[in-house]
Design brief:
With 405 residues, the chain is α+β, with helices and mostly antiparallel strands. Helices cover 25% and strands 33% of the residues. The protein has two domains: 163 residues, Aminopeptidase; 187 residues, Aminopeptidase (3-Layer(aba) Sandwich). Belongs to the acetyltransferase family. One of its GO terms (molecular function) is acyltransferase activity, transferring groups other than amino-acyl groups.
């Protein structure tokens, strides 16, 4: 399928790994340019352009080609997620909240060669991807970008019909050279994948963006485990009764999270740092190695490719839930340290109360990521229950699927 733009012909087609990989990697590298005079993240996909899609239930990658040159690319995936909640009456006097699901598409990795911008190539790629979304039954499409990326925001909101939807926060914490001390008042229990799925479905299935195929996430080989924090003396690994009995009579406070091994998918590298910042980071590492008993917060070497773990499924209840989350984050930090990761990251709703228990560095984090959304069809399955999702009020929490990172 060819699209004409004045004197050139732009062909948009499906990515073919056997002949496109090298050219796509080259384009990806040249497009990874951050804001002027600011730190930016370079993504090394380890030679696999669809590494960020492989774990999604349905995905597609398209490339834009002029002659023999690949000048643009776009990736997309589709899954079923929670977009709201309704009420179910199992007995005449008993009602409970149930999730309302929709088929959601996600656009990621839109790139256009710097020498071929302002030619409408990005718009062509988005439109072709949306055609695939609609052909496969997606009701909504969304994308994520930095709020400061004005070119991306303008393309999607002005030309593609998307609207600003949610502004979650990306919280990033460096992995230090020493272990984080975890409160003795907290017991951490590793859950089996079966128990984790049951707990998530019972407590978090009505959370916005919760994936209906949560079992595929938890059982994935990249998921390193799900961990439950409870007050010391309430439960232990030996006395854990299982999620059903636990939820019938939980302790006064508890929290849960899962860990995803993004290090096996791609690596990151911080670019654009001044010599002063690089020297400062190196100095903290040297001092930490010289005086390890001080347990100084040293900055890992983020100026060369590093891996990271992503924390997902954060949730919990009770007056001490923030302390429980802090203990789980410390536990996750120690896991990441043992795996040689540079940072631990997570993403939460901007008004998420649990964020106060998540350690992070402001200079590495993004306080306002931007998600934009578009309704793809006129009729939709949940019309009578929640109406148009694009016009809904944000909830306190969102469920960030690690497969989308």
């Amino acid at each position: 399928m060819a699209d004409h733009d004045e004197s050139v012909t732009v062909v948009v087609r499906e990515f073919q790994a056997n002949k496109d990989t090298e050219r796509v990697v080259t384009l990806e590298n040249t497009c990874e340019v951050g804001p002027t005079n600011k730190l930016s993240l370079f993504t090394d996909m380890l030679g696999d352009p669809i590494c960020r899609l492989r774990n999604s239930p349905s995905f597609l990658m398209l490339v834009a080609e002029i002659g023999q040159e690949i000048v643009g690319m776009i990736r997309g995936c589709i899954k079923t997620v929670t977009c709201g909640k309704g009420l179910s009456r199992s007995k005449p006097t008993l009602t409970r909240q149930i999730p309302v699901y929709t088929k959601l598409a996600y656009i990621l990795g839109l790139r256009v060669s710097t020498n071929h911008r302002r030619m409408g190539i990005g718009l062509k790629l988005v439109k072709k991807m949306e055609d695939w979304f609609k052909d496969n039954g997606a009701e909504y499409s969304y994308m994520a970008t930095e709020s400061e990326n004005l070119a991306s925001v303008k393309l999607f909101t002005d030309k593609c019909g998307y609207s600003k939807f949610r502004t979650p926060s990306i919280l990033v914490n460096p992995v230090y050279a020493h272990r984080t001390k975890i409160s003795r008042n907290v017991t951490i229990i590793p859950l089996t994948p079966t128990d984790a799925v049951t707990l998530y479905r019972n407590r978090f299935s009505t959370t916005e963006f919760f994936p209906r195929d949560i079992d595929s996430v938890v059982y994935n080989k990249l998921s390193l485990g799900t961990f439950l924090a409870v007050p010391r003396g309430s439960y232990s690994v030996e006395t854990w009764p299982g999620p059903d009995r636990f939820l019938l009579g939980p302790p006064c406070s508890w929290a849960v999270l899962s860990v995803w091994n993004s290090k096996q998918v791609f690596r990151l590298e911080v670019r654009g740092a001044s010599r002063v910042k690089r020297a400062f980071a190196k100095t903290t590492r040297v001092l930490d190695q010289a005086f390890p008993w001080l347990k100084m917060p040293s900055v890992p070497n983020l100026f060369r490719p590093f891996g990271f773990h992503f924390l997902y499924g954060l949730g919990g209840e009770g007056p001490k839930v923030v302390k429980m989350v802090k203990a789980l984050c410390g536990f996750a930090h120690n896991m990441a340290m043992e795996c040689g990761c540079g940072v631990v990251a997570t993403e939460v709703a901007s008004c998420e109360p649990l964020r106060f228990g998540i350690p992070h560095w402001k200079m590495l984090s993004c306080t306002e990521d931007l998600w934009c959304i578009k309704r793809l069809v006129e009729d939709y399955s949940h019309h009578s229950l929640i109406g148009d999702w694009t016009k809904s009020v944000p909830g306190i929490s969102i469920f960030v699927d690690p497969r989308d990172i």
